[in-house]
Automatic annotation (TrEMBL):
Protein name: Transposase
Residue runs in coiled coils: 61-95
GO biological process terms, semicolon-separated: DNA transposition
SUPFAM superfamilies: Homeodomain-like
Organism, as annotated: Sulfoacidibacillus thermotolerans (Acidibacillus sulfuroxidans)
Length: 97
């Protein structure tokens, strides 16, 4: 089984810039770099989709996605705290009767 080659962010950005600025077809650049043209089309699409946050790396999130995940975690934590406080309130109010 062939092992997938990993390319760093700088290489991907330089390659995408070469594609966008050179005017050469992607298939020609793919042959020159010995990279699948499908891979290069993916890099260009990812870059055009979000140039600022393109190629963020494995396991990392875009800043907006990270903020959303953090907020969702905070909401879950607060809901859990709220449920605990409700249970405690029921226990203490039942003890007084």
């Amino acid at each position: 089984m062939a092992q997938q080659k990993q390319y760093d962010k700088e290489f991907k950005l330089n390659t995408v810039q070469l594609i966008l600025e050179s005017g050469k077809p992607i298939t020609q650049i793919a042959r020159e770099l010995r990279i699948s043209s499908k891979t290069l089309y993916g890099w260009v699409a990812q870059y055009k989709d979000d140039p600022k946050n393109a190629f963020i790396g494995s396991g990392n999130l875009k800043p907006d996605d990270k903020e959303l995940r953090d907020m969702q975690k905070r909401i879950r934590d607060l809901e859990e705290e709220n449920a605990i406080l409700k249970k405690a309130m029921r226990i203490f109010t039942n003890d007084r009767k």
